[in-house]
Amino acid sequence: MFQYIKQLKDNKNWRDMKLKLIDARLYFVSIFVGLLTGLIAAPYHYLLQLFFDFRHDFFDSHPKWYWYIPLFLIMWGILIFVSWLVRKMPLITGGGIPQTRGVINGRVSYKHPFIELVSKFVGGILALSTGLSLGREGPSVQIGSYVGCLVSKWGHVLAGERKQLLAAGAGAGLAAAFSAPLASSLLVIESIERFDAPKTAITTLLAGVVAGGVASWMFPMNAYAHIDAIVPALTFWGQVKLFLLLAAVISIAGKLFSLVTLYFKRIYPAIKHPVYMKMLYLLFIAYLISMTEVNLTGGGEQFLLSQAMNPDTQILWITSMMILHLVFSVLSFSSGLPGGNFIPTLVTGGLIGQIIALILVRYGFINYEHISYIMLICMSAFLVAVIRTPLTAIVLITEITSHLEVFYPSIVVGGLTYYFTEMLQIKPFNVTLYDDMIHSPVFQAEARYTLSVEVMSGSYLDGKLVDELRLPERCIIINIHRDRKNWSPKAQRLMPGDQVQIEMDAQDIEKLYEPLVSMANIY
Fold it and tell me: Among 106, 331, 362, 371, which residue has the least CB neighbours within 10 Å?
């Protein structure tokens, strides 16, 4: 009897050691995912900047009128080609954050990840090279998830660990886009994986640090770090009034932004015009803006940076530029071409902050040198209002600017904005896009989905007999993968390291994902 107990103990010690080695392998692989993502996403950023500089130099040189025609025709052909790519591979549309979340949840599968990665990379660069107001961060996130998918296949990673590599790649993509590894990890937890499993947090942070390091190596100069953030000398009640004003205005603006964007996003497919004509209309707007204010194109980031460093004092002109950028961003994003809405959202929030700050300067509440401080706070708050990722927004602005001065006010204004957006019933933008995606006819045709979870030592599932488990209705354990073998679940006692496959109704996966994963994880 004692010999049997000792043998069990020895087996348990050996199994625990084996699981730690498996975890170490996963963390090493996540570092490799971060390195690959950085080596792909950083050149993506570089090429976008290169094409922007080309357009900027072309329009600033004011060439003869006949040179505008061949460039226009080339860009029109580019947009038609990118539209064709999206029709062939629908998963590369838009920013890619909803698609990445769908893959992690089991709603979507990357059937041809390498081809789709190349198409997302090429399509995103070409779409933004024409001047459309799209962001680089969404495609970078999805590119990272493609890398995580490919590495998990090439490395024969267990099914329960694939989602960790997908999440790690997604976080690494954002880290490479902004050189902000901490914010990228928070985005995965808040908006993509939406579950703080320990392994997911660790793998995402490791991959993000490596990808962010690659991005910092390729882009040693961070333009956001040159923005001044001079805090106005206000009394306590003066700060309270300022923060309440910013939160209220940003919340209302966020509500309008979300309603307008989603409205155009949903009516765009119903417009009865050929795709090539839709691209013609869109390019015509981009061309006109490029001829007047080229910095507003390509997401508008360059215009935001120029205003944050040397703010213009003409309220009417800034307001008109903000409205023009907003309308152009909405139309660009509604097209479904590869490109995110993260940077256009930052730009809109920053310009709204500049308008508020200019009004406050006019009435003597703050001085001119405090305008950029207000802009940075509003950038963070507007992300909270639209995307509803408060931790990501606060940490991102602090990371990219290196200004701790905006950290405390961003927390206060972001918290107030989050509360006001709850009152205004603003649904998170990426969640709305995700819901639209999974309720499309393609997904409604699927009746059942399979979720893979890994049993961790000390979790609820650890040591339980499958036959005695009381899972949610219509959830069934169909397979247990242990020691490189598949086992029938009948009469099996679950052990740490088991990869458990749970089948459920397709419409229940969003409601049951977190409860089921929490049964297999510890905190």
Answer: 362
Nearest CA to 417 out of 386, 373, 371 is that of 386
Closest to 456 in 3D by CA, of 252, 232, 160: 160
CATH architecture, domain 448-520:
2-Layer Sandwich (3.30)
Q: What is the CATH number of domain 2-218?
A: 1.10.3080.10
DSSP label of 465: B
Main-chain dihedrals φ then ψ at residue 384, nearest 5 degrees: -60, -45
**pLDDT higher than threshold 60 for residue 2:** no
Q: 352 vs 5, which has greater pLDDT?
A: 352
Would you say the CATH fold of 225-437 matches that of 2-218? yes
Pair 4, 142: CB distance under 8 Å: no
- CA separation (Å) from 514 to 52, 103, 189? 42, 15, 12
Map 127-178 to HEC letters.
HHHCCCCCECHHHHHHHHHHHHHHHHHHCCCCHHHHHHHHHHHHHHHHHHHH
The answer to whether residues 110 and 104 touch, using CB atoms and an 8 Å cutoff, is no
At 448 the three-state DSSP class reads strand
What are 198-249's pLDDT values in tens digits?
677 778 888 888 888 888 887 777 778 888 888 888 888 888 899 999 999 9
Any idea what the Cα angle at residue 355 is, between residues 290 and 351, rounded to 5°? 45
Question: Tell me, what DSSP letter sits at residue 456?
Answer: P
Could you state, in order of their start, the residue ranges of all structural domains in the chain? 2-218, 225-437, 448-520
Q: Report the alpha-carbon distance of residue 52 to residue 43 in Å, rounded.
A: 14
- Give pLDDT, residue 22: 66
Q: Does domain 225-437 have CATH number 1.10.3080.10?
A: yes
* Cα separation, 101 vs 192, whole angstroms: 5
Contacts of 514 (CB under 8 A, 6+ apart): 194, 195
As a whole-number percent, the residues of the chain with pLDDT over 90 amount to 18
